[in-house]
Amino acid sequence: MRALPPAARGCITGAVLAAVACAAPAVRLGPGAPWADAAALAALHAGCETLRHRPLPGLRIPAGTAPFLTALPVLLAGVFLLPPPLAALAAVPGALLAPAEEPARTARRLWHAAELALACWAAALLFDAAAGPRALASPHSPRVLLPALAAATVLCAVLAALDGAVRITAEGARPRTAWRGLLRGSLGPHLVHGPAGLMTAVLWRGAYGPSAALLVLPAMYLSCWAFAQYHRERAAHRATVRALVQAVDLKDRYTRGHGERVGRASVMIARELGLPADRTEVLRIAGILHDVGKLGVPTRLLRKEGPLTDQERALIELHPEYGHEIVRGIGFLGEARDAILHHHERLDGRGYPYGLKGAQIPECARVVAVADAFDAMTSTRSYRRARPVPAAVAELRKCAGKQFDPRMVRALAAALERHGWHPDPALPADPAPDLPCGPPPLPQLPAPGARRGGATPHGRHAAGRGGRARHHSARPGDA
Predict the structure, then answer these.
(1) Nearest to 395 by CA among 437, 335, 445, 341
(2) Which one, of 27, 19, 146, 151, lies nearest residue 81 by Cα?
(3) End-to-end CA distance of the chain
(4) Which residues pair with 74 in a beta bridge?
(5) Residues 389, 42: Cα–Cα separation, whole Å
């Protein structure tokens, strides 16, 4: 403990002394106390902790899963079955056997044992006061569910309070930030494991004894493993999206932060339309990744300072198809792939890459198109200032029915009126051009010129769609 700051040593010492004071009354309980149950639960808790960190030969725990394989139901069973001093004692062996990192490994183990003992003592004290010492033997045991949940909440709150205290003393964290997120992040699992611990305790006291109670643990471990797999999959999805966004930001400095803002505006539209949460999340990702196809566009074109030639415009206009090819194999994106491919289509059929009209354009693409145009107009560029939000909304309404879906425009306008628009000032603005509502095809890309040959899904060649005026304020990288 010498390596720790004096305040941290004092915090740990105080916690250990408080835990000893809470557990000391156990010596006065006498032979009639449930010592055998306390020893069995302590051994079970220690075994669960050992198995979590050092699995048996042949038992493979996937990487990243161990933190979810918790021994919390065993601790809570001790809270419900044992007097408060014995509940505190039962938590100590497993805490001392759990691995700890250097530096100050011994101090870490002592701290972990002390905080678990104090949390279990406080939770058991509350449960005894609320439900009574014979609650589990009552034929009306379902009535103890609320006291059990309250005890689980107290256990979580004590652990969060002590963890915040050690952050302040050992790491120098500010008090207003030391406890931030600790209770909220751990309360859910504690409340989920509360009924599992209660079930373990009821079976423990039942006709079949502790052997029946052990049947609860495999089911809990299986559910924890499934949750861990889901958590890892979601983390992998977020990492994939983040890597793609960073790659685009590195390639095109002008659009840095643009995807995040388009994703935010897409979510506002989706919520206003009453779309379900899963589709709202897909639209958020679609907005973030809508310009991922820029990875296939030559960097010199994205960063060109002067006007683009027709050939250069044609190359930049390939970015929706490039983007679709990049994300084609990413299964979790779902219909976000359609938004990436079609967010430059127009209702009047003068968009690209396929000149789709009206309802032929996927709904997600119509949402992202409006969000994309809105951020284009409300972002500051080197050659002009951002338009005010009311002016941008007026321009979107002017173009509704020709370029944009009027329903999406109305949804964004209503959401902005209700919530306002708060772009992150730390993010560089996107250099998208002004948005005319006439023939030019889309807000962020100059009008298409000659396109490469090849049939589209509608049997037309991209180069065969004429009659589009050149965008009056095009800039390189406005895609």
Answers:
(1) 437
(2) 151
(3) 58
(4) none
(5) 63
The CATH T-level fold of domain 252-464 is Hypothetical protein af1432 (1.10.3210)
Q: Token match 């968009």: residue?
A: 351
Please report, for residues 265, 400, 457, 460, the alpha-carbon distance to residue 453 in angstroms, rounded to integers and kept in the order given.
35, 31, 13, 9
| Mean pLDDT, the chain cut into blocks of 10 residues (479 residues total) | 77 93 90 88 83 54 46 87 92 84 81 92 91 65 81 92 88 77 76 81 80 71 66 74 76 73 92 88 88 84 78 88 85 84 93 91 94 88 75 94 94 91 52 37 34 34 33 36
- The pLDDT of residue 120 is 94
Q: Where are the domains of the chain?
A: 6-231, 252-464
CA 233, CA 221: separation in Å to the nearest integer?
A: 18
Instruction: Yes or no: say if 36 and 136 are a contact pair by the CB < 8 Å rule.
Output: no
Q: How far is CA 14 from CA 158, 180, 194, 410, in A?
A: 15, 23, 28, 61
Closest CA to 314 of 405, 226, 441, 208: 441
Asked if 429 and 386 touch (Cβ cutoff 8 Å), the reply is: yes
Query: What CA–CA distance (Å, rounded) separates 292 from 325?
Result: 10
Give the pTM.
0.52
